[in-house]
Amino acid sequence: MIRVRNLVKTFGDFTAVKDISFEVRQGEIFAFLGPNGAGKTTTIKMLTTLLRPTAGTVELDGLDPLRKQNEARQRFGIVFQDPSLESELTAWENMEIHGVLYHVPRRQRVERTEKLLKLFELWERRNEPVKRFSGGMKRRLEIARGFLHTPKILFLDEPTLGLDPQSRNQLWTHVKGLNETEGVTVFLTTHYMDEADRVAHRIAVIDHGRIVAQGSPAELKAQTQTDSLEHAFLALTGSSIRDESATSADAMRQIAKLWRR
Amino acid sequence: MGAVYILWLRELKRYTRSRAQMVASLGQPLLYLLALGFGLGPVFQQSGNGSYLQFVAPGVIGMTVLFTSIFSGIGLVWDRQFGFLKETLVAPVPRISIVVGKTLGGVTVALLQGTLVVVVCLAAGFRPMSWLAVPRAFLYMALIALVFAGLGTAIGSRVEDMQGLQLIMNFLVLPIFFLSGALFPLEHLPKALGAVTSADPLSYGIDGLRATLIGRSHFGVLTDLSVLAAVAVVLLSIGSYMFSKIEI
Q1: What DSSP string runs through chain A?
Q2: How many helices (H) and strands (E) does chain B have?
């Protein structure tokens, strides 16, 4: 479903992603793990047409997203690291805009919106502006929205960041459920190793822009002779802390935090 | 087409739902109108220029349209990182329909806000020379809105953080307003100031509003219209181009 060959991305003289290759099979839940600044988000951006690769190829459902951009975009849904809902509008209206942008026929849009909002337990509050939703509800709405146009692939970039254990748990239950019922391929990143261990069929670990290990959670544990994915992860990526320099997005994230309280 | 419409509608709904903001943004024009209108009135009158309230009202209307439209574009800085915009950037629709929908939305909102200020001006005692002039004033308001929505989009697509915005506000938006002849007549200005005001597109918008509403013009209506239309085309093209190049 996703095929990446020798992907490279450089920003000036810094190489964020160094010649990575991997494949994600149809219907698989694939976790892409790595410490901060390892190149996870850069890779997701290249997979989702937001950044142009410096070199290498990407294939989504057999399509080159550079050449067939809109066809490729129609095939995936994405939940970004930062919120991307229109907070003045209601849950229903957010779904409606998404449906129009993804050319979902009206009837189907209405039916599917109802189904997804019910599934994600947001139906009762569909006519409330999103700004009154909790962090977990907003995340659920974003995921429901990502499913609206029946994508073949769903990208989730740290979807559980800042959520309490209850919300995290519930969120993965829904994602797993839809993976099983609709056969959607899921590509996710997270810093919570227990989540990856629980939901992912296969994992790739990226560090300093290179893939250092790939395999099922059990395989990674066996390879590193550890008993938990967390230990396996630390064995693969070392325990030094990565201090990235702050970007403008980080500065704005700080302001956003102040506003959210 | 559906994308343009739905994004236009989004801007409109955002505006009509934030009533508090709507009222708050009337504060500034009201202050200019009342404090300057009545404060500078006597001096203006004595210098033989007639009523200052009559003179400044078109300036205040132009200011409102300027601020509302330019901020609709500059809002991109926030919107593309923490807002809904990112969602539209990965949608299977051409970037041009996104920028058109968003710009038309911004222009519509600027016109609505401008209408509110027209009403406030009338309530404060402003009288256009004929009531038929009011619909014609909307043409100039729309042109001002298009010019600065284009400029705002160009800036909002380029600037990366909130500090940059402060700079833009102090060194671009406020000078555009203060150097436009919104607050003072363009006649008999020192040469340098005269040159700067003629380079400010807002000068032509406010001159056009004044020509229509109180029959007083510095550049002439034909110049006003052609300069505004030309600048609008240029800035909207630059804005759309920059928007199409946004990488997040």
Answers
A1: -EEEEEEEEEETTEEEEEEEEEEE-TT-EEEEE--TTSSHHHHHHHHTTSS--SEEEEEETTB-TTTSHHHHHHHEEEE-SS----TTSBHHHHHHHHHHHTT--HHHHHHHHHHHHHHTT-GGGTTSBGGGS-HHHHHHHHHHHHHTT--SEEEEESTTTT--HHHHHHHHHHHHHHHHHH--EEEEE-S-HHHHHHH-SEEEEEETTEEEEEE-HHHHHHHHT-SSHHHHHHHHH-S----PPP-HHHHHHHHHHHHH-
A2: 15, 0
Shortest alpha-carbon distance between residue A227 and chain B (Å): 38
Q: Domains in chain A, start-ordered, CATH in brackets?
A: 2-260 (3.40.50.300)
Q: Is the ipTM of this complex over 0.85?
A: yes
Min CA distance, A106 vs chain B (Å)? 11
Q: What is the pLDDT of residues B169-228, one digit of tens each?
A: 889 999 999 999 999 999 999 999 999 999 999 999 999 999 999 999 999 999 999 999
**Cβ(B248)–Cβ(A45) below 8 Å:** yes
Tokens of B229: 């239309």
Identify the three-state secondary structure at position B51.
Answer: coil
pLDDT tens for each residue of B123-136: 999 999 998 888 99
Total-model pTM: 0.89
C-alpha count within 13 angstroms, C-beta hemisphere, residue B207: 25
Nearest to B10 among A50, A89, A103 (CB): A89
